[in-house]
């Protein structure tokens, strides 16, 4: 049985290996994930101008860039991968917004101020935590009273079903929450946790959050030609 500290180190090595495939250029929209609506459509973050914002799992820094271009007053980013942090620094340094970047697991972030941020955001990163309750307590404690937290993560269907013989089939039980070790991420192992939607909701409530919205919408173009056997595909999203 792997300990949480071991899982974090495995994922850190994995992300350092594959980080470059997730780097992207500047963009004018905030995308909440594969086949997900955008911030421009959902308007979850509210007024960005003048806000102090924390991003948990900042990856290559392009979400921070998006926030800076919309007038954020100060930005903080946290990511497990040193390679991601290095790229994020290059991206955010091009702008005039003060920023702080921390290379750290989201479960225990050194130097994270309490009751400091107007908003926190996490785009397709929160599900990587090996300790969801602790991570959510960290985020909740960092927000000012009345602050908001917006996050996205893949729908559990992506890990529950697989496409075989022109059919979507359950490969495991949805209610069986456990971690899985995958050995085929560019030959580098990673650890992924399977969690129900209700687990995220309950742990958010336990951490002190009041849930305003839960959105499960997906967007699949009529002409989508994605490979149905891939982890993310129009077949699964539809």
Write structural notes for this entry.
The chain is an alpha/beta fold. It has one domain (4-34, 47-216, 226-237): Vaccinia Virus protein VP39 (Rossmann fold, 3-Layer(aba) Sandwich), CATH 3.40.50.150. 29% of the residues lie in helices and 23% in strands. The protein has 8 helices and 9 strands. The chain has helices at 4-18, 39-42, 62-69, 82-92, 132-142, 157-160, 197-207, 234-237, and strands at 52-56, 74-79, 99-103, 117-123, 143-152, 161-164, 167-170, 179-185, 188-193. The chain has a 5-stranded parallel β-sheet with strand order 3-2-1-4-5. Strands 6-7 form a two-stranded antiparallel sheet. Helix 5 (132-142) crosses helix 7. The longest helix is centred in the first third of the chain and has 15 residues, at 4-18.
What's the gist of this structure?
By secondary structure, the chain is of the alpha/beta class. It has one domain: Vaccinia Virus protein VP39 (Rossmann fold), CATH 3.40.50. 29% of the residues lie in helices and 23% in strands.
Helix content: 25-40%
Q: How would you name the CATH homologous superfamily?
A: Vaccinia Virus protein VP39
| Beta strand % | 15-25%
CATH class equals: Alpha Beta
**Number of domain units:** 1
Largest sheet geometry: 5 strands, parallel
Q: How large, in whole angstroms, is the Cα Rg? A: 18 Å
- At the fold tier of CATH, the topology name is Rossmann fold
E-strand count: 9
> Order of strands in the sheet with the most strands?
3-2-1-4-5
Count of helical stretches = 8
Order of helices and strands: HHEHEHEEHEHEEEEHH
- Per the principal axes of the C-alpha atoms, what is the gross shape? globular
Q: In terms of structural class, how would the helical and strand content be classed?
A: alpha/beta
On the 0 to 100 scale, the average pLDDT is 90
């Amino acid at each position: 049985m792997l300990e949480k500290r071991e899982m974090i180190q495995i994922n850190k090595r994995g992300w350092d290996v594959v980080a470059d495939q997730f780097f992207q250029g500047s963009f004018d929209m905030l995308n909440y994930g594969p086949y997900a609506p955008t911030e421009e459509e959902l308007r979850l973050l509210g007024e960005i101008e003048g806000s102090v914002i924390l991003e948990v799992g900042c990856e290559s820094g392009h979400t921070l860039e998006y926030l800076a271009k919309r007038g954020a007053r100060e930005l903080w980013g946290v990511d497990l991968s040193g390679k991601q942090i290095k790229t994020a620094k290059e991206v955010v340094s091009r702008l005039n917004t003060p920023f702080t970047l921390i290379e750290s697991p989201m479960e225990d972030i050194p130097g994270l101020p309490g009751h400091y941020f107007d908003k926190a955001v996490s785009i397709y990163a929160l599900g990587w935590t090996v300790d969801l309750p602790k991570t959510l307590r960290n985020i909740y404690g960092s927000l000012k009273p009345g602050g908001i937290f917006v996050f996205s993560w893949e729908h559990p269907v992506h890990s529950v079903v697989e496409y075989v013989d022109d059919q979507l089939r359950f490969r495991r039980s949805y209610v069986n929450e456990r971690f899985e070790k995958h050995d085929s991420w560019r030959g580098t192992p990673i650890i992924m946790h399977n969690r129900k939607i209700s687990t995220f909701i309950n742990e958010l409530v336990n951490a002190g959050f009041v849930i305003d919205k839960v959105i499960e919408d997906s967007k699949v173009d009529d002409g989508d030609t994605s490979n149905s056997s891939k982890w993310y595909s129009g077949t699964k999203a539809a």
